[in-house]
Amino acid sequence: MISAHVWSDARLLWEFQRMGHVPRACSVGVGLGSHDLGVADVAIGLYRRGLVPLLVFTGATSRTTRERMPRGEAEHYRERALESGVPEDAVLVEPRARNTGENIRFSRELLAERGVDVSSVLLVSKPYEERRAYATARKLWPGVEIVSASSPMTLPEYVDSIGDDRLVLDMLVGAVQRLIIYPKQGFMIEQPIPAPVTTAYERLRDRGFTGRIVGN
User: Fold this and answer.
1) Burial status of residue 67 (CB atoms within 10 A of its CB: 0-12, 13-18, 19 or more)
2) DSSP code of 145?
3) H and E: helices and strands count for the chain
4) How far apart are CA 124 and CA 148, in angstroms?
5) CB of 148 within 8 A of CB of 19?
6) CA-closest candidate to residue 154, choices 14, 16, 40
7) Can you say how many angstroms the Cα of residue 132 is from the centroid of all Cα atoms in its chain?
8) What is the CA angle 154-98-110, rounded to 5?
9) How far apart are CA 121 and CA 25, in angstroms?
10) How far is 134 from 19, CA to CA, in rounded Å?
11) Do 65 and 171 touch, CB atoms closer than 8 A?
């Protein structure tokens, strides 16, 4: 049983990750591969609203997805889009990326190869990785405006949709850890982290929510 104190700390991390961007028309939508098909659903919704003319789904597999998405995260996202009525020529698949940096770099390369002029990107991620994805894209795709998007769910709603509270809490902690350590390694831009968020992160880490900690 996860305590109320843990959920209180988790909500701090959850809210910090949300960028608060209002989706607007962009050159392309990029859906970052993961275990969560909700990312594809958000990207599909943005396409249907006419905010992007093209979707790129990016991602291979990971230890979290190799069983539930055996054909690769990007391919499963693509299948979801086609089943939802998105035209085949409006979806590109980048099947190699195994981390957020590769998601960005390989998507950028794919679009350049296809001759797509990109001045802005609607970057679709899981809700608890918006800021991490944004900071990475700002570092690796300079000169392009990044607009963050994700499901508008609350933390309890999201946990219910995934069905694995431990996984979500581990991911939240891992996402904040990367915001702390990755700028120094050149993987993303620096993001100021408020002291209450840092404290909540440390408490959750010390309570053992370390399944997605780098170096664990």
Assistant:
1) exposed
2) E
3) 8, 5
4) 6
5) yes
6) 14
7) 8
8) 100
9) 9
10) 8
11) no
Cα dihedral 38→153→203→1 (10° resolution):
-90
Point out which residues pair with 23 in neighbouring strands: none
Whose tokens are 């109320």? That residue is 4
The rounded distance, in Å, linking the Cα atoms of 4 and 6 is 5
C-alpha to C-alpha distance for 56 and 78, rounded to whole angstroms: 9
Give the whole-angstrom CA distance, residue 100 versus residue 148. Answer: 14
Looking at residues 29-57, what average pLDDT do you find?
A: 95
Integer-rounded Cα radius of gyration of the chain: 17
Are the CB atoms for 55 and 31 separated by under 8 Å? yes
Name which of 104, 92, 94 is nearest 47 in CA terms.
92
pLDDT tens-place string over residues 123-160: 999 999 999 999 999 999 999 999 999 999 999 999 99
